UniProtKB/TrEMBL annotation, chain A:
Classification via Gene3D superfamilies: NADH:ubiquinone oxidoreductase, 30kDa subunit (3.30.460.80)
Name used for this protein in its record: NADH-quinone oxidoreductase subunit C
Signal sequence segment: none
GO MF entry, a single one: NADH dehydrogenase (ubiquinone) activity
Gene source species: Methanochimaera problematica
Annotated stretches, region: Disordered: 177-239
Lineage: Archaea, Methanobacteriati, Methanobacteriota, Stenosarchaea group, Methanomicrobia
UniProtKB/TrEMBL annotation, chain B:
Domain NADH-quinone oxidoreductase subunit D: 124-381
Cofactors required: Fe cation; Ni(2+)
Amino-acid positions noted as binding Fe cation in the UniProt annotation, renumbered to this chain: C73, C378
Residues annotated to bind Mg(2+): E51, V342
Residues noted as binding Ni(2+) in the record, renumbered to the chain: C70, C73, C375
Protein's UniProt keywords contain Cell membrane: no
Gene Ontology molecular functions: NAD binding; nickel cation binding; oxidoreductase activity, acting on NAD(P)H; quinone binding
Protein name, entry field: NADH dehydrogenase subunit
Keyword match Oxidoreductase: yes
Keyword tags: Iron, Magnesium, Metal-binding, Nickel, Oxidoreductase
Organism: Methanochimaera problematica
A Pfam family the protein falls into: Complex1_49kDa
Domain of life: Archaea
Amino acid sequence: MSDIKRTPLTANEIADRFSDKFAGKISDISIRQWTEGAKSTPVNSVWITIERSILHDAVKEVISIDYPHFGVISAVDEVDFVELLYHMYVYFGCPGKGVEITLKVALPKEDLIIPTISDLIPGAVYSEREKRELMGVEVADIPDKRGLFLPDDFPKGIYPWRKDDAGIKEGMVKDLWAVGRPEDRPNPPVKPKPKKEAKSGGDETKNSAPKNDVWPPEKSDEENKAEIKPCELAEVKGE
Amino acid sequence: MSDNKKNAPYKIPIGPIHPALKEPILFTFKMNGEVIEEVDFSPGKVHRGIEWMGMRRNPVQIVHLTDRICGICGVTHTFAFSRAVEQVAGIRVPERAQYIRTIMAELERIQSHLLWAGVAAHELGFDTLFNLAWRVREESLDVIEYITGNRINYGIIQIGGVRRDIVKEQIPRIEEALSYYEGLVDKMLKLFLHDKTINMRCRGSGILTKKAALELCTVGPTARASGLKFDVRIDSPYGAYGDIDFDMVLPECYLSETNGDVYDRIVVRILEIPQSVSIIRQCLKNMPGEEGDILWEPKMPKLLSACKKAGGEAVGRVEAPRGECIHYVRMKKADAPYMWKVKASTYSNQLAWLEILKGEQIADIPIIVASIDPCMSCTDRVSVIRKNSSEIFTKEQLHRMSVEKTRGLN
């Protein structure tokens, strides 16, 4: 945290420190570099795949290296398991020396629980709440159990980021083109084409939209006549 | 007053259609008299499920979604997303395109900071300054329109580059805007920072300590105003930032000490305008490559097939006007990304509200809430519940309270 006495470690040194300290609990460490700009300024990142049991200690280790800026927790549903990615950034404020550390933790589907890290980094609670809500990952000892983004009446046990049965069901998705037009509003001043209307009737089942919600709404001939009138009048006036 | 005391603390909900955000949000304040004891908020009133939509579209289609995540940050999200996809697919963006991206990001910063400055002035009841800030903001929008064809939702960034070039003939017009802002800086500093009222309202209010700024994961001008040296453009250079000479803007550049209050946040944002001008100048001066070399692959089928062949994961980070923006993308050799996670800058800054609103007064809510985020509209509705009766404050009333407090000071 102190700005003056920080001597930045390189990505390699950070990787070594982790592999020494948590030998056996780390399944993969990779260092990636990406360059941009005319001078090809490199930016390094360390991706560490760890076991769930050492997550808390690993975050402690990151803090002992340099108190990180905690970015966010990403979550991926890999069908058999859920992977959480803790994106953290160390050595900010040291121009060009910033290193991105991503801790990857895999959780089995039948036991989706992860210890909280909000006791170490208070700001992480926000992202943890989001993972509970959108991925259905239980966070042990989380200080705030409320949801974050979904409305209060969102069905329980449905998690929008899941790709299995707990994901968004087809019936929950509303296609904008299929919702139809509110019935209590005046019709648009366009002459409807009754022939096409009759043809489109066959496609309704495909979109699973209720019959009366189909656009454009079916109208009797009398209604059509009444509707066209103001339009024609307007044209006459214009001339 | 004594009657009210009997019931204190009482709770005031503000929102969900609320002011300081692009999205509605519900605040609950636990009040003791005029003083805020505790704050809580619940976001997500307009969660649009953009990530869900994106995971059913290909990256080129998503670019148009990311343009519309935020109305102010038209470049930021697309920049971050395309950087993530480019890393996964191994796409090298032409240097010229990187420079144009950087220029757009900085023009966006100028317009965003000016927008915020105007709103902040409005929240304090200083509408003359609000009108002035928004009038001078027009120049940046005009230049953005001149370059991209749009005032907002520019649609300039494409996976692997940018859609429109900045050619030699356009530079004088851009330079004109840069000189305009350069000439304005002293005036802006004088109007905002040397004004007696703004000093009295903003100094010492909404304080975020450096420690809290770090632990609550704040980003952007909010973090820098607390003395935290955190700027993605400098820590992990992207685009053309690695080639450019510029320093982080901290309150100590202008003031003798850093307080982390609302005033410091104004200082940082105002000083970032000349910084952006300098960055754009350097980009224009050193623009590499030949005119027209702005896309990695101009043929859409080739670009789409490169994206479809890509597998892996990457993080795209950029410094938005409000702070760090993260896009995480995992791709699995399919049309659509397997997973896409967006973290906007306000996501990181929101927790700071709990800290900075504590102990402040009701009339200070608008300016303090606005101080972390330039996209402040206005308090739409506040209902005050006192035991059995409840009365509703409209945004105008709340705004009036703020204005009255300013008048009371003078």
